[in-house]
Amino acid sequence: MSKFWTIVGEVYKKNVKTASFIFTLLSPIIIIGIIGVVIYFVSDNQETPVIAVISDDNVYSEVLAKPNDHFEVNTKITTEKEAKSALEEEEIVGYLVLEAQNNQVSGTYYEQPATSDKVNAADLIALLTTEKTNEVAKELGLSQEDMAKLTSSVMIANQTIHFTDGKEDEQDEMTTTLKTVGATFLAFLSFMFIMTYASLIATEIASEKGTRIMEIILSSVTATTHFFGKLVAILLVCATQLAFYAIVAIGGFQLLKTDAFPKEITDIISDFYFSAILDGMLGASLLYFLLGLVIYSVLAAFLGSLVSKTEEVSQVIMPIMLLSMAGFYAATFAGSASGSTLYKIGSYFPFFTPMMMPIRIANGTITTGGIVLGLVLMIVFATLMTYFTLMMYRSNVLVYSDAGVFITIKTSWSVLRNQKRK
Amino acid sequence: MLEVKGLTKTFGKLIAVDNMSFTIPDGQILGLIGQNGAGKTTTFRLILRFLTEDRGEVLWNGEKLTNEDYNLIGYLPEERGLYPKISIEEQIYYFAKLRGKSKQEIKPLIDFWMDKFQVKGKKTDKIKSLSKGNQQKVQLICTLIHQPKLVILDEPFSGLDPVNAELLKQGIIDLKKEGSCVIFSTHRMEHVEEICDELIMLKNGEMVLNGTIKAIRESFGRKKLYLECPLSLQEVQELPGVKQVSFAPEGGYLLQLEDEQFGPEIFEMVTKNGYIPTFSQQPPSIEEIFKMKAGDHHE
């Protein structure tokens, strides 16, 4: 096994075995699980409110007494007096007094103020109206078809037309929204991964420098081998996490499609929605995400190599936190204005691209040329930064200074110039 | 064989190593002494190519050291470093792999080395559970287990108790027997005298002493004389060429002579009445030379 893979293996093994990594891996699942359990108990505990119906006409009280999702009818209460005392005793949440005369149905619904289990009067009206319509139809001798004709409402579909490059874009509003949701989620993922892995890689390097293990390693392998070994190992740890989430997401999606869940939920997460959201996350956006991880990791490695104590890591990686946070906030809060010049310019800044660009793609405010330009800029920037970091890395990791980051950079630079002079 | 020729390194205006030259043949041990900041660690870093020299060169068997030679090196840095969270054997495997050895090659050797340095604990124990001294021994095993040909030890004795220092000393002598070039730095002069073939003392990057222990000591002249004889202090002070007299801690007198040539004359005088228990004319110890040289300001 080459020395490069020895380093990759060691760093990878060390990091995936930590409790914090396993917790990071499982935390979204745990959180979703907790939310699920809470929803389950909340919905289960909700009792169906009980009401009473006082009516001379049995037709209507029978309609309301049929089992429904909104309320139950206590059929034992038949007089207003009984109902009133039941309401006072809180046996029922309200009662309806109905009068039906000459096809006119009217009534009053009595309830206590501010009870938690309210019955919506609209539900009562809807049920009664349907029944009344049926009654009238029967009287007029209308057939089922005639009824259907009568009650069918006017359909208006909503379609938004986008014009991109002077061409009509057939994407509808819904798809755009869903894509944006996907893109925003990706921006959040970027931010989260950058926060986690930037500090991981910086700590990894600073601790080796601080414990002087670095000196032993640099007397065994070149600084370049070591640097790339670390970088690749941490990116592999990151890939492990992503792969795990992908498997869980796909598994969860498959599970949702089975009959184990009510139709309402499976409908929401139908293939259409899912693929639209995914659409906002894949393709060029995913490339931005991955390149972003590389850029931030390299920067983190550089910053980590500047300090000699792990305690100083959180301080030194502040710029990473600020940059990624700025990018993330720009994407989430200014995303609706992704067509603005300022947003466009910002999205080409390599540190912001991974968060801001996917929103532009989702909103269709970017041309294919722009997407490619963004990618090229990121690749060029990543290459330059890796080169610069490598150049400084070797001297950085051997300069131990408590004097602060800038002094370290200065010392390191002079060491470097010394090397170059030769 | 390691050859260092005219090695010079400056950091800005500071001359860290100044025109340094020495040779360590295979199977020889070179001791590097000097006060803190004299340039010892910089010398090691130049040999290891952590730093690039301004002038001069470092040759291994007549050729410049390259990436291919990494596997020949055993390096113990001044401040020790191990991964606290992994086990002893994992640590040893990792560093050995970085020196181009496989796990299979190293596995059978671990017990031998742990035994040799009397490491307390099992090889599956985590590094952080070990005492500082034991961690240091593990570090030494990591430095030596791949049978390096060029061994560089920066302050290997610091932090070791006398028993463990003895084990390390034996370890270094074993390396010599196996034909390795060993270079180490220390502040403990007794180790230098006991195990070094050659010695270099650095002061502000400059070599102020260089040679075998014997030659260096002799070059200062046998101006020290231990004397046990029936003469009184007064009489001893009046002997020829005596600069200063004090009572030796182990009994008798300790004389400082103006020149070693006074020796035979004094010997004649103190033995004219026959037997005396001690007459020992010695050159200064390395420690005394060290203090003397370190104190010189005119250089």
Describe this structure in words.
Chain A has helices at 3-16, 19-45, 58-65, 80-88, 121-140, 144-151, 173-210, 213-218, 223-257, 263-268, 271-279, 284-304, 313-316, 318-333, 341-347, 353-363, 368-396, 405-421; strands at 50-55, 72-73, 94-101, 104-111, 162-164, 167-169. Chain A has 422 residues and is an alpha/beta fold. Chain A has a four-stranded mixed beta sheet, with helices on both faces. Chain A has a two-stranded antiparallel sheet with strand order 5-6. In chain A, helix 9 (223-257) crosses helix 12 (284-304) and helix 17 (368-396) crosses helix 18. The longest helix of chain A has 38 residues, at 173-210. Chain A is elongated. The model of chain A has no long low-confidence stretch (mean pLDDT 80). Chain B is α/β, with parallel strands linked by helices. Chain B is 33% helix and 28% strand. Chain B has ten helices and 14 strands. Chain B has a six-stranded mixed beta sheet, with helices on both faces. In chain B, strand 1 and strand 2 (14-24) form a beta hairpin. The mean pLDDT of chain B is 88. The chains are: A alpha/beta (422), B alpha/beta (299). Chain A binds chain B through residues 1, 3, 6-7, 10, 14, 208, 211-222, 398, 414-415, 418-419, 421-422, and chain B through 10-12, 45, 48, 50-54, 67, 70-71, 73, 75, 77-83, 85-86, 94-95, 97-100, 102, 142-143, 152.
